[in-house]
Amino acid sequence: MTREQIKFFNELAYIQEYCVNVTLSKEKKYCNTEELLKDATAEVIYRIMELIDGYSGELQRCNIVNTITGEVINEGIELHDKCVEFLENPFLLVNKKGKLF
Asked: φ, ψ for residue 65 (rounded to 5)?
């Protein structure tokens, strides 16, 4: 692996460890396993979006590119800001054409 790939995977390992510890520290607040899992996975997704946005560790902002269309999916937005809102209610934020409101 390249140095950048190792940095990326080290950041993912840190995110996993961090999110496990945060979730375990709040374990008693959950009424059921589904709530716990949704909260834990939302935290992981948020932290990965921060990583891609360049707000975590040593990595700079990364682009997510659709290899078929060439579109940079995260152009002009901060993924970590959008993911919280979207994960809370994904069906309200998308119109019939798949565009975010």
From this structure: -115, 130
Distances (CA, A) of 98 to 41, 55, 59, 68, 93: 23, 28, 30, 18, 9
Q: What percent of the chain has pLDDT over 70?
A: 88
Backbone dihedral angles phi then psi of residue 69, each to the nearest 5 degrees: -95, -20
How far is 57 from 42, CA to CA, in rounded Å? 19
Q: What is the pTM of this model?
A: 0.81
Give the confidence band of 76 by pLDDT, cuts at 50, 70, 90: very high
Residue 53 scores a pLDDT above 90 = yes
Read off the amino acid at residue 67: T
Residues contacting 22, CB < 8 A, separation 6+: 43
CA 70 to CA 56: how far, in whole Å?
26
Instruction: Return the structure tokens found at 13.
Output: 């390992």
CA–CA dist 101, 92 (Å, integer): 8
